[in-house]
Amino acid sequence: MKPMKPSARTSEYLAKGMIWAAAMSVMIVLVAIIVYILIKGLPVLNFSFLTQNPYNMGRSGGIASTIVGTLYITLVAILIAVPFGIGTAFYLAEYTRENIITRIIRFSAESLAGIPSIIYGLFGFIFFVIYLGMGWSILAGGLTLAFMVLPTIIRTSEEAIRAVPQIYREASYSLGATKWQTIIKTVFPSAIQGIVNGIILSVGRCIAETAAVIFTAGSVLSMPFSLFDSTRTMAVHFYILASEGVSMENAYGTAALLIILIFVVNVGVNLLVSRFINKNQKR
Amino acid sequence: MEENIKIEIKDFSFLYHKKQVIHNLNLKIHKNEITSFFGPANGGVTTLLRSLNRLFELNHDTHTKGDILIDGKSIFDPDSSVTELRRKVGMVFEIPAPLPISIFDNVAYGPRLKKKKSKSEINDVVEQALKQAALWDDVKDRLKAPAMSLSGGQQQRLCIARVLALQPEVIMLDRACSGLDPISTAKIEESLFQLKEEFTIVIAPHNVQQAIRISDRAAFMLMGHLIEAGTSDEVFGSPKDQRTNDYITGRFG
Ligand SMILES: Nc1ncnc2c1ncn2[C@@H]1O[C@H](COP(=O)(O)OP(=O)(O)OP(=O)(O)O)[C@@H](O)[C@H]1O
Ligand SMILES: [Mg+2]
Questions:
Q1: How many angstroms does the Cα of residue B47 sit away from the middle of ligand 1?
Q2: A157, B47, B141, B178 - which has most CB atoms within 10 Å?
Q3: Would you place residue A273 in the very low, low, confident or very high pLDDT band (cuts 50, 70, 90)?
Q4: Ligand 1 pocket mutation, candidates B16, B38, B172, B223, criterion most atoms within 8 A of CB
Q5: Residue whose CA is closest, atom 1 of ligand 1?
Q6: Average pLDDT, chain A
Q7: Looking at residues B101-106, what average pLDDT do you find?
Q8: Where does A58-282 sit in CATH, by number?
Q9: pTM reported for the whole predicted model
């Protein structure tokens, strides 16, 4: 007797079923986590929780200062990392051929991407906080996070730039464009979606980071005002509330807001970009 | 007597890395005529066209010898501007290459690169270019639609319009009709006949029939060598070289 061989159609169904099952289980796990946190956290989220500063170590009061601290640090990190990251990516993709320098830059970026965030925290602590005398501050935290997300931004941007078809560049040059005009008018708009995806990813990592931030921005609970104030981000607040058993209730509230925040950033930025792309198409 | 010469190619050779793909080519291209370069694959036609507007400089490790003169001036003159050259010598690629922007923006791309123009001037240039390329009636109601939404033939005419909007002196078309149906091809050929009144046209026809239909002059290229060149009647009517004859009569290539 011949061994049983599944017919083409059977294996087709089988493969489809397995892929579907894999996708479904991932989705179920993700949804379960999010739903669980929202169920535990949403009841805590109310106006006073969002607008009051925490007091009594976060046992009571709200989380206003940590929201401000999170946004502040993330903003500083992104404002620094984005121009340098995109600039480096354009340099690598458009301005040089493969040579020893580009290989060193790319190798460094790849290696930096694999380093655990706590190492960035230690580096930031030693370099920014102590050596440059910034102290625990939003500036030191933001700079450290900028270094942390720089490799991501470089890599995603470079990939997006390289994915722009060469024929677009040739068309642009053949119409008399300079290199700069070609980059600004053709390459950048074609790569923007990929570049923005990298930025969103980085924003998410900044908002969610704990280890690197505790070392460099500290964990002061008062409302930060200047770049040189220490602060506590929402993620750090959550970590301390939960790990030290201060208040699980408020910890879940903070976590729920974190999730909502990351969701809003994602949707918001994507909307902005699609409007930018549409406008570019219409003008 | 030589005043109707637009382009003069003098002893021109071209190398990719160390591989020579054009060998000591000499040819004069006349104003207000259609000159076609034809021959079997890898003859070096695309490379020659990319030399005329110096687009080959985008490739690394390319070398040229000899010279190319336009209106008597070398295009390689260090004082001359390469962007000006490319506006003067417009190119339509083998594959339609619209940019991923609207129909209008594609045609306006070139004119907008130079500051001075007002909105209404640009509108006029775009409209005129689309009319010359016989595309205006197809697209006048959807100028803001993405260029990618056009058919292959329309995209290729859009690329011709885009070149016309540069107000060039020379128009080069590299197998511009290769992927197109006979009707689109006829439309493009019809526009070329009108355009040569005003411009110098250099094309790589997509087959011998097209070369015979539209050329005033023709040059037969084989493996980087110019085998023979002359008026259409000379080259297609009584070719001097056996290889030209064989190719035209379909015996090889
Ligand atoms: N970027 C490049 N690098 C190296 N060699 C190249 C490059 N482009 C073309 N060549 C070579 O140069 C020669 C001439 O190519 P070219 O594309 O100019 O010929 P062609 O006449 O346009 O051919 P086709 O009829 O296929 O369009 C070929 O041997 C080709 O392999
Ligand atoms: Mg070719």
A1: 6
A2: A157
A3: confident
A4: B16
A5: B59
A6: 91
A7: 95
A8: 1.10.3720.10
A9: 0.87
Which pLDDT tens digit goes with each residue over B120-132?
Answer: 899 999 999 999 8
Q: Which atom of ligand 1 is nearest to the CA of B41?
A: 25
Q: Nearest chain A Cα to B161, which residue?
A: A175
All domains of chain B in start order, with CATH:
5-248 (3.40.50.300)
* Complex-level ipTM: 0.93
The chain A residue lying nearest B56, using CA atoms, is A170
For residues A264 and A3, the model is more confident at A264
Cα-Cα-Cα-Cα torsion A219, A225, A227, A232, nearest 10 degrees, comes to 20
Which token pair is B83? 């962007």
Interface of A with B (CB under 8 A): 97, 167-178, 181, 185-186, 189-190, 280-283
